[in-house]
Structure formats: structure tokens, C-alpha cells
Amino acid sequence: MTKPTVLLIGGLTHTNKEWEELGSKYNLKEFRKGTREQFLSNCQSGQYDDVVALYRSNMSTSVTGLFNDELVSALPASLQYICHNGAGYDNIDVGACTKRGLKVSSTPIAVDDATADIGLFLMLGALRLAWVPMVAIREGKWRGNTQLGHDPKGKTLGILGMGGIGRAMAHRARAFGMKIVYHNRSRLSKELEGDATYVSFDELLAQSDVLSLNLALNAKTRHIISAPEFAKMKDGVVIVNTARGALINEKDLVSALDSGKVASAGLDVFEEEPKVEEGLLKNDRVFIVPHIGTNTYETQREMELLVLHNLQSAVDKGTLLTPIAEQKGKMNGHL
């Protein structure tokens, strides 16, 4: 009996051994390096005509470019599953995939703790206005022009997007004595919600002392936080974003910082990475890191393993372990 064929796009860092071991039951094909043009040419020449599932590595966008309608249309007719390494998948045209009947998975759960850790780090850094003294001491100026910061205790943390990362953020924030409110597409079960309070979007904006963005980027959520939303927030609010930069209109955030509406911000993600809005770079009240939320050995390995598990479940059982939200309950995908 012919073994099923699977394709790896991009490189692996921590699970090369596990990938190679799959060769005992699958025919393995790879496109670790190359260009979009080369990949499209391979598709057109029939090199991948027997591939039923593919592993799309976290850095594969630098190899093939976006999985937009052009590329999705060129994928072989045999393909059924796209197993993506990353909690975010805004570089995949979900509509084009769904139209073609392609089932897509991502890597939630594996990223929850590390992303929430960096979120808490950014929140504390923003509350304590830590950037100024951190720079000053390295320049031999001791604390420099350090201003008084704020404690998290007693503050209301508003979480926009109460998925796994949002809940992990809430769990950590409770240890600091923070009150948790959240807004989601739908209210969580009592078991998942705990002592957090479900509120409307406008109530979230109005009540939050700290607003943490923990939702996916798509056409509906792009610039979900812009000038009109800042106007509804408390004066002196703190913004934390570990999700996707384009959830916020960065120019509007700069204006809100300049006016004092936003007291400070903690950011791991940016609208046009690796480019960062100049007004954010120059503002001492912005505590920033360069998209390192999942940049730990343990999390990176766990993410790669989850993609491999999705791949095996798809090929062997016809189901994905962690299908993307848009396809849950559809196309035989389930958690």
C-alpha cells in the first residue's frame, strides 16, 4: 500500500528528529528554502500532486510569501490539510482555503503561557514606566528622569479576547490583586470565566485601567482600537498588545499617548513589522520588545510538536486537533 505524502514548507529547529521519524509511515517531501516563484513552479509542474497534508513552519512566509488566493489556488488538488505553526494565521487566506475545502490548524494552547508571561512583563513595565530608568542606568545616569509609576493592585484589567492567552493573562494578573473584566465573541462558561466579569465592548473600554489585546487579527478586528475607541477609555489608561500590531491604529495610539489619554503602553507586536512607528520608538512611556512573546525553547518546541501532532491526526484520523476558529465545527475539524 502506498504511503501518504506530506510536505514540509520552511525549516524546523527543534523537531527534525521527530519529522524524520514520520518517514516510517509517510512519504516526506520538503521545501525548506527557496522563493515563492520556485514553490509555485513546483506546484505547477506536479511535484506535490500526491501531497495530502502540509506542515507550514513559523517562518515559511519568508520562503513562499503569504498563503493568499494566488498561492492557495496553485496548491495540488490532493491537498486536504494545512498545519500551520503559529497561534496567529493572518498570513493565510482562510476564505480561499475554506472555499477549496482545505482544513487549517494553528497552535493555540502551546503559546498561551509564554505569551501571557510577556504580556505581564509589558504590563508591569508600562505601569512602572520602566523604560526611562532602564536606559538611564546603561548610560551612567542612574535613574535618569524617572517618574513615579503605578501598582497593578486594585486596577481593573480589561481583556479583549478571552481565549487561552487571555485566560492565562487573567490568571497571572489575579496574583497582583487586579480585577478582571473581559469582552469576547461570546461569554465563557462559568468554569472558564471564574471571577472575571463579562462586559460589552464599550463597557470594556470604559472600565479598564489596563487594556490587554489578546485576539486574532482579521478583516473585522483590524484597527479595532483607533481614535473613537481611545475616546471612550479612561484618561491615563495603559495599553498592552501581545497579539497583532494591526489591531491598533498606531498613529492614533501615538496621538493618544501625546495627549495623555493613554498614560503608557507595553507592546510586543507592531503594525508593519519589523518597521516600528517612529512615534512609538521615541516615546519614553512606551515599553517595547521585538515580537518575542513565544521566543523560548520550551514554547518553540511545543509549537513544532503540536503541528506534527495535527499533521498525524489529519492524515491518520481525518481530523485536526486544533482547527482554526473559523472552521471549528465545520469540515470535520474539532478540538
UniProtKB/TrEMBL annotation:
Molecular function (Gene Ontology), one example: hydroxypyruvate reductase [NAD(P)H] activity
GO cellular component: cytosol
CDD domains recorded: Mand_dh_like
D-isomer specific 2-hydroxyacid dehydrogenase NAD-binding domain residues: 122-293
InterPro entries assigned to the protein according to its UniProt record, in alphabetical order: D-isomer_2-hydroxyacid_DH, D-isomer_2_OHA_DH_cat_dom, D-isomer_DH_CS, D-isomer_DH_CS1, D-isomer_DH_NAD-bd, NAD(P)-bd_dom_sf
Keywords: NAD, Oxidoreductase
Matches recorded under Gene3D superfamilies: NAD(P)-binding Rossmann-like Domain
Domain D-isomer specific 2-hydroxyacid dehydrogenase catalytic intervals: 64-323
Pfam families: 2-Hacid_dh, 2-Hacid_dh_C
Superkingdom classification of source: Eukaryota
PANTHER family: 2-HYDROXYACID DEHYDROGENASE-RELATED, GLYOXYLATE REDUCTASE 1
Sequence similarity: Belongs to the D-isomer specific 2-hydroxyacid dehydrogenase family.
Protein name according to UniProt: D-3-phosphoglycerate dehydrogenase
Species annotation: Cladophialophora yegresii CBS 114405
